[in-house]
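Summary for the steering committee. One of the milestones for this cycle was to obtain a three-dimensional model of the protein with zinc ion bound, which we needed before selecting residues for the alanine scan. The sequence and ligand used are listed below.
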Amino acid sequence: MTKHFHHYSDSGRIESAINDLASMTEPGRPFTRLVFSSEYKQARTWLWSRFEAAGLKCHIDDGGNLIGTRKAMSDAATSQKIIIGSHIDTVSAGGRFDGVAGVIAGLETIHFLNKHGIDLPVDIEIVDFLGEELNVWGTSCLGSRHMAGLLCADILSQTDQDDRQLAEEIVKIGGSGKPTLVPRHDAQSIIACLELHIEQSNRLESGQIDIGVVTDIPGINRYSICVTGKAGHSGTTLMQGRKDALVTASIIVTMIRDLAQDISGQDNRHFVATIGRIEVYPNGAAVVPGEVKMIMDLRASHKHSRDLFLDRLQSAYTEISHRESCSIKMELISAAEVAPMNETLRLHLARSADELGLSHINVSSGAGHDMAHMSRIAPAAMIFIPCQDGLSHCPEEFTTTEAIAKGSAVLTRSVLTLAGRDF
Ligand SMILES: [Zn+2]
């Protein structure tokens, strides 16, 4: 058997699958397939039929995940499993490849096994994880949280602006809508969870590298920052002695950028900090801003960088607060620890790429993924493929069929060696 990546998938089938799913979008706002929407349900039905056509036995688990299973050969001595998965929901006006590429690549692995009549001593599950993207209920990665036992009642009881409760939506899609506080009952038998995903950054493309072997999914911490000054008439409040909360907030925003730049340059590890949301009170054209609320999003592949950043931020606050006569209060609103990817699996992925003659580098993920949650209960790893200009979560998001085929070949070869079949 030749080890050229072309032999591991069918590029025509990959392309038509991508196009089929892209057509299932909210009309007038490509590419929008929000979790639980009618487009999403249509895509689920489509995927179910694709799974069945590949011989997979389909079911929806209690968490609303669509799972297609290829059973181990009948005389298999163990009940081990390999999970390959990603997601088919999108953000609003998102792209065609984020998540989709991984599900389609997993399906190509199944087609390869079928085509060559390869029976494996392990079950393979192709999973479309429910609602990976951040939704109006405020929680991402619903399906993987369920599998990892991290879907609590608090999350499920959230309602959106139309009073739709998250739990009820999960029931409508075939799940139980009940909290899951323990990992999947068969977690011990999962020997690998693998996900192929577009990189959503431009390190691979700019280095002309085929494959990124993900080292970790960074910890994500969000903080609310509240700056309180004193509101006043914009015409009569003299410049001297003002307590302008927005001016103070703007100093904080640029300071956070500078501190983060400094720290990310220091140790070459992934570290980013962003203020992406800001509210000004009272937000009037003729009023000195009295209060500003912001949210800071911190992502670090190493706890040390985060702690160092927070330390420096605290002392900067003291100085700014004194100088600008405004109070600054920061509170942690959500925290997820860094999720390192399994080292043995990473070696498998790198070796598979080598065997196929594909170039590869180690990359930190930057974005959150279902594998962060899966890594808490089983060995997990990710394959990144290049995407054009690093663009993602926008309609311009693009990767080539060839890039998907290369990633898919790495996936398939890794599955074969993990299952003890050096094909
Ligand atoms: Zn994604």
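Key point for the committee: The chain has twelve helices and 15 strands.
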